[in-house]
UniProtKB/TrEMBL annotation:
The lineage of its organism: Eukaryota, Metazoa, Ecdysozoa, Arthropoda, Hexapoda. It is found in: Nucleus. The keyword Electron transport does not apply. Gene3D superfamilies: Ribonuclease H-like superfamily/Ribonuclease H (3.30.420.10). InterPro entries: REX4_DEDDh_dom, REXO1/3/4-like, Ribonucl_H, RNaseH-like_sf, RNaseH_sf. Residues 212-231 are annotated as: Disordered. It comes from Aphis glycines. Pfam families: RNase_T. Keywords: Exonuclease, Hydrolase, Nuclease, Nucleus. One of its GO terms (biological process) is rRNA processing. One of its GO terms (molecular function) is nucleic acid binding. This is RNA exonuclease 4. Belongs to the REXO4 family.
Length: 231
């Protein structure tokens, strides 16, 4: 393990009251994380949710993405939303070996407009966790305040595992949580839980880093206390 990453994990372990319980509750490799336990945010903290979407292919080449399933878990790792979505365009590739989506899953799914409205309501005023969230938000056709997003694919400590390249959720989960996911067909519930656990693992240092960045003066300006008064 990279020395800096190892240091961060060690500091998080020492600083978390429920760290031992958290690690003992993690499922072994090949488990689906369904029974995993995550650290609960303190009452004063903003509410946290994690999201993941499964997509199917559209357009003649099947390279376009269309929402097929969306899953959301709360800060306890409990599934609070999980729906298949009725297609709005012709599906040319169900991507079943990866997406786990079959024609019968979405044939009678919820209509997209309703799903979009429900998801938007759930995410409002919440800290949103996920992996490569730009793809999920794009197929949902929604936006979320940048300062309220925690994307495990962009966190610098996680990227050190891949020497600065974007790490896959599967690799991060195996390396930091000791659990295997995405063995065959993916599950959006499982992936959302994995992203949530990764965030909770790095949360203390992650939030401290963001706090420091927000406190820096912008545009090269010096802090007010050091500015000279012009006569």
């Amino acid at each position: 393990m990279n020395k800096n990453v190892a240091s961060t994990v060690h500091k998080n372990a020492n600083g978390a009251n429920n760290w031992i319980k958290f690690m003992n509750a993690l499922p072994p490799p090949t488990s689906n994380l369904n029974n995993a336990v995550v650290q609960k945010p303190e009452k004063k903290d903003i509410e946290v949710v994690a999201i993941d979407c499964e997509m199917v292919g559209i357009h003649p080449d099947g390279q376009g993405n269309m929402l097929a399933r969306v899953s959301i878990v709360n800060s306890k790792g409990e599934t609070i939303y999980d729906k298949f979505v009725k297609p709005t365009e012709q599906v040319t590739d169900y991507r079943t070996p990866v997406s786990g989506i079959r024609p019968e899953d979405i044939e009678h799914g919820e209509v997209f407009i309703k799903v979009k409205k429900e998801v938007t309501q759930i995410l409002r005023n919440k800290l949103l966790v996920g992996h490569a969230l730009e793809h999920d938000l794009r197929v949902l056709r929604i936006s979320h305040p940048k300062h309220m997003i925690r994307d495990t694919s962009t966190y610098w400590q996680f990227k050190q595992l891949t020497e600065g390249r974007t790490p896959g959720l599967k690799r991060l989960t195996l390396h930091f949580l000791g659990a295997s996911i995405q063995e065959g067909e993916h599950s959006s519930v499982q992936d959302a839980k994995a992203a949530l656990q990764l965030y909770m693992l790095a949360r203390k240092d992650w939030e401290l880093l963001l706090k420091k960045r927000r406190s820096r003066p912008r545009n090269g300006n010096k802090p007010h206390g050091s500015q000279r008064k012009h006569k």
